[in-house]
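Homework help thread (please don't just give me the answer)

Our assignment gives two proteins as sequence + structure token strings and asks us to describe the second one. The first is just a warm-up. Here they are:
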Amino acid sequence: MTVLLFALLTAALLGLVWVLRRQNRALTHLRDAVRRGQPLLREESSDGGLPAWNSVAWPLNSEAVRRHPTAVAARFDAEEIVYTDTLQKIQQDVVLLDARAAPRYRGEVEPIDPVAGHVPGARNRPFSDNLAADGKFKPAAVLREEFSRLIAPNFPEDVVHMCGSGVTACHNLLAMEHAGLAGSRIYAPSWSGWIADPTRPIERSAA
């Protein structure tokens, strides 16, 4: 059930159109829309999150917000999500990027799942590596160079992202999109789904 819930969450995230803009422009757009009580007409990701909002001293509200139902047109492309049976068929032809922290990837620790390690052949790209010291995304050019080096000689369309349960894998997908490397996909069940079948192989090794 947990794997299914995370898979559904991942599908919902991928159904949104992500638009990254410069920090102040994105936050200003969000702030002004909130002030006017208007809905956002597109999905955006606030670079830096709540700390960035606080850094410019914009107000916070702890009151419960009641909104009227609105119609939302979202596009869902099932081809952007990979499940285990498909992954096993295409695994030799794709680059599987694991977004978990290096100790979890190596199998040194596992605070959530009952089995430690990683999918054989997966490469490690901790999602935290996408961020600069201030918590914001690294410049697109830097991300492009890092991901291009990591997935070489493959193309962005050959990349499948995973993590523990399919959530932080979206961070790597978004970072690649921000870097202009479009077309990668998500392995929604991720590590939790992979180890659900004890007959599937696992690795514990250096990153």
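The one we have to describe:
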Amino acid sequence: MRKRINASFESNQPKLGQIQIADIKIDLESRDQIPKILLGLQHFYSDEELLEKAYNILEDEIILQRSVQSNNGRPGMTIWQVLVIGVLRLNNNWDYDHLETMVNSHKEIRLMLGLGIWEEHDKISRKTLMNNFSMISDKAFDQISELVVKAGHKMLDVEDEELKTRVDSFVMESNVHHPTDSNLLMDSVRKIFHVIWFLENVLNAQIIDQSKNELKVIKRLFDKIRKMRHSTSKVEAMKKKRKDAIKEAHQVFLTKVQGLFYKIDNAFENSSMDSLHMPSRAKKIMEMSSYLDYAAYQMDLISRRVFEGETIPQHEKIYSIFEYYTQWIVKGKAKTPVELGLKVAVVDDQYGFILGHQVMHKPLKSSGRL
């Protein structure tokens, strides 16, 4: 078995600066979590039985289920490297940009991946990281996590002891800006124009006249309403005047966005371009359609709030068009009374091992447009 695993992720010709994974020296005095993760991976590597079980899980995921041939295609990542980057990304909650930087710059991480620390051509691109990591399902990582917990209990010689568990929850925060209906409408409009420019470029044809100028006009109207505030004057006439000005600014903004919808509808209704049915372009059109739906939904919320004076219920609001699952979570904390993200429940035992987790989803909002 060891020969099979060695053949998978170790080169027959050692690279400059490369050492055996079991011989990597890790800073035991560091208070950062990366050395702790690397120590766990080093133990993982030294336990042949544990490594073989994990290897079989990943091999089944990558090679059998996804029809990837282990001895064919362009150079990518070995199964051991996929395991290492998966553990690092999930434990540190890194995005792919940060993961790429750490994989190519952090000495101990590169050694754990079986790479030479001085070899420039051994750098792993962001696209390679994404393509390989995306092949592993949540179920596979859950199975590997279960193996690790059993190995930990075995190491502590507590396999036969009764486990005492507890459940706690925390908020996995989304990377979103402060969500207002006008902000989200502007996000949708901006993404719509990105798709329009992509299609105009690949088709070498104009879909909307002066599209860049059109976006500038909409952005100027958005900036105007973003800066407007309700009057704090005690004079009712002044308060009413400011309220009417806010309504008028919103009306002009919404009318301009609605005009954009009409231009897009007319452009595609009058188009006879068969090339739009190519998979990559059809995908972009579907993407634009989803942003049009988001924009229409936000326009409805703005109309209800500004013109009808309605207070929009929380369950009808959307907090991000990119991370659509984001929820407005109130946990009553003094410093952070409100958090944007998803609640995650975690079950651990008296030895500190995480036994399971569950994302605490709420039903997603829906409307006639979404």
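TA reply:
I won't write it for you, but here's a hint about the kind of observation we're looking for: Confidence is low (pLDDT under 50) at residues 1-13, 364-370.
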